[in-house]
Design a protein that fits this description.
heterotrimer, A mainly alpha (about 220), B mainly alpha (about 240), C alpha/beta (about 575), A: about 220 residues, mainly alpha, Cytochrome Bc1 Complex, Chain D, domain 2, 11 helices, about 45% helix, globular, B: about 240 residues, two-stranded antiparallel ribbon, 9 helices, about 0% strand
Chain lengths: ~220, ~240, ~575
């Protein structure tokens, strides 16, 4: 079994291996109290059943590279907090995240979100894929598809997929496996979103693979 | 899932994000926000004396202040240069068949000049006016510049066929456009006007925010040219 | 020498909402339909995609989607005795062009008229007596009633997916909707839009003052919606680039999103774009159309023979086409003889800017084209005019469709037009100013009309349409009254400065007001005072139908598109169930 397969099939995530210690820099000048509290929870978890986030998402927010767990570094704090609350209430269904989110108090949710938001994501090298696949993904990302009646992803997800703070998450640099999986979740109605519902449904399977491949390789700050 | 205005998530949202500041800082020294203004002049249409006049004039129309740069720093003169050199200056979307007659104010623009012609004529007349006195507009002290512009605005001066108030309104209109339009047109450098007023720009999805009344949204504005491959869009459309 | 093409059953002139729907309905019966569109083809992808579409300079300021006046303009004068001059640039109103027509770049404000609007003359005279109507006004009944059109309103609203809450369901007043609306047979297809901050403040103040605020009915979707044609639209994200722009999200109801894909699939239909129709051809009797002549982009002229001609090219263009083709007698205001061009009307707009405190962040850039909270208490004849000395009214709308900075940078009265103080005022007030939009009735008048200009021509050498128009005194009195009422609401909202700015004359072409140009080919029961009968069939030439806001004898307070949708389906029904079975005059 691959490591990723094990991770996906067990409720417990393996602790993040220290071998890939990635140094990060905060985007903001000084850590706030909230961010420090967040760092603590990320590293150690809480007494109320919240496992340390770092075990799956990494202390640096880069996760483990498998795509089973999303990169959180630099994601918008409001978006992260909203997802945690959605997990806690069951609005967003996930057997792994639900008890964790429920184990966080309100202020702790905000702190954890602030912490991860303060991190600078790194771009890890991707596996090589066919250039046509990425090109198709770029086309969908920037232009959409008339026959599928799908608009450009970037019209909501921002230039090069860097997101539209505070509410629309960045996709640039996010693991393609994770993006693919989430679109499938929207497609099947398991994850609910008014705006994602029809695009997820209208994209064909190869298109989903294509946009995921494109965004994983998109540079968050864009080429200028 | 849409939340009502008083839902729990709205309160939490407000608590965690009353003022949203993205990774870039927004406040700061006005000149520092833009870098050097003169370094990147476009040179498609304006001659030197027109450029000098415009830099001085737009600087009075929308001046810099302690907190925010003005039209000159924002590249409005480049904007005007590019507009006059392009299709707009050449008379697109302008009905140019005669006969040309003076109309009532409600009948609008009735001159036979394209924007570029109107501009050039007026500038030549203004230049002559100042040359004849051995002066130039840009060298006047601010109060006198304002007085001159106000005089143009009032009307009653003929700028070689262009009533001065027509020219003044034209100049003001283009200055405002250059200040507030997307930076792809050469003005609004670094989206400075959008930062000043709090307009988030061309990328706009407010589905989750519109009913969160009173949230002070401050984020780096995003413009049309921000996506790296905007050339990609043009290529797909056949280059126009 | 024009080349004569193979005859078809139907020619549709102008492929916007009216043209697309009628073409679809008729092609579905097996008829061969040709749609002639003067503009270009365009689609949601790639033409309306963001961020490129969110270009205020290109689309709002330079009128990127609008009719090209270098080729085809109009002339204008306020008074009959003046010389009309060309509108050399569009400002006051913006006729569109291109596949989908105005349906691409409208706001999506989807209203119905009132019951009384269709029997306006009868109703006003019965309620107030004839004396309330100023001597030069020319109000008329439509010849078709609201009740007859109701099922067709319903059909159009379900095609578009209009979002709202019914206020009057079959006579029963419903909570949450507009209690003053005309009765509808069923609920809107989708729930109302989210309320903006300005709208919420307005709602409270208006309620305090005893009015009945509700969310404006909107053709910007509030949830994913699959319409009866099987086409799915996405929810609107309130991007603030609606009017004058195409929608990137498939969220705005337009021909492209609600019907064209179905129409284009039908092999009975052929679309020809960049096809400028020059005239409708008549036979020697002058009572039968034989087809149309049009010119393509290469300047080649064609004759397209057809048995049936549908003129759906936008109100102003429809009237011009009738005049150029010699269909119907042109109107003369001096003799009051003739019908084509009479009863031209508009929309009497006014605004009430309300400047609020700096700690109120309105975020007006978060907007849909039809978001907003509105009261209907002062619209049309919804209130008692007995002691007021005018007829008509305005709806009062608070919210925003946008806060695009070139177009929107309000400053309080007394602020200089430029300079340091202006800049500071713009900064201070941009995100803290609500502007009420009052949309008012426009009463037809003897001296407001359309005809052909004697001097100015288009790129094809044909005379331009000439507009003679000014606001009737009645409408200015009406505007003063309702704007004053609206200002009270603004003061109640706690505005630090309120500008009570009613519409004043003369009408000017130099600033934008509205593209609700109505009349000129009006509907009616009497051929002496109307151009089309109650089925939108021209009295003079039974195989020519005209469907557009040009049919409206006068304009009510409401945006015309919703009512036009009802007329479109009503006419489609008349064509399919009556005309095609037995071509000839239906009345």
């Amino acid at each position: 079994m691959t490591r990723n397969h094990i991770l996906r099939n067990t409720a417990l995530a393996l602790p993040f291996a220290g071998a890939l210690l990635v140094s990060f820099s905060t985007a903001q000048s000084a850590a706030t109290d909230s961010t420090q509290l967040g760092a603590q929870i990320v590293a150690q978890g809480t007494a109320n059943g919240a496992i340390a986030c770092a075990r799956c998402h990494g202390f640096d927010g880069q996760a483990d590279g498998s795509g089973a767990f999303p990169k959180l570094a630099g994601q918008f704090p409001q978006y992260l907090a909203k997802q945690l609350r959605a997990y806690a209430s069951g609005t967003r269904q996930n057997a792994l995240m639900e008890p964790i989110a429920k184990g966080l108090k309100d202020a702790e949710i905000d702190s954890v979100a602030q912490y991860y938001a303060s991190l600078h994501p790194s771009t890890l090298p991707s596996r090589p894929v066919a250039a046509q696949l990425v090109a198709r993904g770029e086309q969908l990302a920037k232009l959409g598809d008339l026959n599928l009646r799908v608009q450009a992803c970037e019209s909501c997800h921002g230039p090069n997929g860097q997101g539209e703070p505070p509410a629309v998450p960045y996709l640039a640099g996010q693991y393609s496996h994770y993006i693919n999986f989430q679109i499938q979740m929207f497609r099947q109605g398991i994850r609910k979103s008014q705006q994602m519902q029809d695009p997820a449904h209208s994209l064909r399977e190869p298109d989903i693979v294509a946009v995921a491949a494109y965004f994983e390789r998109a540079s968050r700050n864009g080429a200028k | 899932m849409s939340d009502g205005p008083n839902s729990n998530s709205r309160r939490n949202f407000l608590r965690s994000s009353l003022v949203l500041i993205s990774t870039a800082t927004l406040a700061g020294e006005a000149p520092a926000l833009l870098g050097s203004a003169r370094a990147e002049e476009t040179r498609r249409f304006l001659n030197e004396s027109e450029r000098r006049f415009l830099l001085a004039a737009v600087d009075r129309l929308i001046p810099a202040d302690e907190r925010w740069p003005g039209a000159a720093e924002a590249g409005v003169v480049n904007y005007i240069d590019l507009q006059m050199a392009g299709a707009w200056g050449g008379g697109e979307m302008l009905y140019r068949h005669g006969p040309f007659r003076k109309g009532t104010p409600t009948q609008g623009y009735q001159l036979e000049y394209t924007p570029a012609e109107l501009f050039r004529r007026s500038m030549a007349a203004i230049h002559s006016h100042f040359s004849a006195q051995g002066k130039s507009f840009d060298q006047l002290p601010p109060a006198q510049k304002d007085a001159y512009l106000t005089n143009l605005e009032k009307g009653g001066i003929d700028l070689d066929g262009v009533p001065s108030n027509t020219f003044f309104d034209f100049l003001l209109k283009h200055t405002v456009e250059g200040f507030f339009s997307d930076p792809i047109y050469g003005g609004n450098k670094n989206k400075i006007s959008w930062k000043m007023i709090g307009f988030p720009g061309a990328y706009s999805d407010y589905y989750d925010l519109i009913d969160k009344h009173g949230v002070e949204l401050r984020r780096e504005p995003m413009g049309i040219g921000d996506g790296a491959a905007s050339h990609f869009m043009n290529a797909m459309r056949g280059g126009h | 020498m024009p080349q004569t093409l193979k005859e078809v059953d139907v020619v549709v002139i102008g492929v916007g909402f009216a043209g697309s729907i009628l073409a679809k309905e008729l092609a579905a019966t097996g008829l061969k339909v040709v749609g002639l569109e003067r503009g270009h083809t365009r689609h949601s992808v790639p033409d309306f995609q963001a961020p490129a579409i969110h270009d205020e300079l290109k689309y709002s300021v330079r009128k990127g989607m609008m009719q090209d006046v270098t080729r085809e303009a109009m002339t204008f004068r306020n008074q009959h005795r003046e010389v009309a001059l060309p509108m050399r640039q569009w400002e006051a109103f913006l006729p569109g062009t291109g596949l989908g027509g105005c349906g691409v770049h409208w706001n999506g404000q989807a209203w119905r008229y009132q019951v009384a609007d269709f029997i306006y003359k009868t109703h006003i005279e019965q309620r107030y007596g004839k004396k309330i109507v100023d001597p030069d006004l020319r109000i008329q009944d439509w010849g078709v009633t609201y009740q007859e059109l109701e099922p067709y309103y319903d059909r159009f609203e379900y095609l578009l997916g209009v979002c709202g809450k019914a206020g009057n369901l079959n006579g029963k007043i419903e909570q949450g909707g507009n209690p003053l609306e005309a009765p509808r047979s069923r609920e809107y297809p989708n729930p109302p839009m989210k309320e903006q901050y300005a709208g919420a403040l307005f709602r409270k103040a208006a309620t305090d003052l005893g009015y009945h605020p509700f969310l404006q009915p909107s053709a910007n979707m509030t949830r994913p919606y699959t319409n009866p044609e099987g086409l799915t639209l996405n929810p609107c994200v309130y991007c603030g680039f609606c009017e004058r722009y195409g929608c990137e999200h498939f969220a705005k109801a337009s021909p492209q999103t609600v019907i064209l894909p179905v129409l284009m699939k039908n092999p009975n239909f052929e679309l020809r774009t960049e096809s400028q129709v020059l005239r409708i051809n008549l036979d020697s009797s002058g009572k039968k159309a034989t087809g149309v002549n049009y010119m393509d982009a290469q300047g080649r002229e064609f004759e397209q023979p057809a048995s049936l001609v549908l003129l759906t090219a936008f109100a102003l263009n429809d009237v011009r086409m009738l005049l150029l083709s010699g269909i119907g007698k042109p109107y003369d205001p001096v003799t009051e003889k003739g019908v084509v061009g009479r009863n031209y009307a508009y929309q009497t707009q006014s605004y009430v800017p309300a400047f609020l405190k700096e700690d109120i962040h309105l975020n007006s850039f978060m907007a849909a084209g039809a978001s907003g909270t509105v009261i209907d208490d002062f619209s049309a004849d919804n209130f008692d005019h007995s002691a007021l000395g005018f007829i008509g009214g305005c709806y009062v709308l608070c919210g925003s469709t946008n806060a695009r900075p070139i177009e929107f940078h309000p400053t309080p009265p007394g602020t200089p037009r430029w300079g340091r103080q202006w800049k500071e005022a713009v900064r201070r007030h941009y995100n803290h100013t609500a502007v009420f939009n009052l949309s008012g009735t426009s009463t037809a008048s003897r001296w407001n009309y359309l005809d052909l200009d004697p001097t100015y021509r288009d790129a094809w050498g044909l005379p331009l349409l000439r507009m003679t128009f000014d606001f009737p005194e009645n409408d200015l009195r009406m505007s003063r009254y309702v704007t004053n009422k609206a200002s009270e609401i603004a003061r109640r909202m706690g505005a630090t400065t309120v500008v009570d700015e009613p519409r004043t004359g003369p009408f000017t072409t130099t600033t934008y007001q509205s593209t609700h140009n109505t009349g000129g080919a009006i509907i009616g029961s009497d051929p002496a005072t109307s151009v089309v009968n109650r089925y939108c069939q021209t009295w003079d030439v039974p195989n020519v139908f005209v469907v557009g806001a040009c049919n409206y004898p006068q304009n009510s307070s409401y945006n015309p598109t919703g009512t036009l949708g009802a007329l479109i389906y009503w006419t489609a029904d008349a064509l399919k169930s009556r005309y095609l079975k037995n071509p000839g005059p239906l009345v």
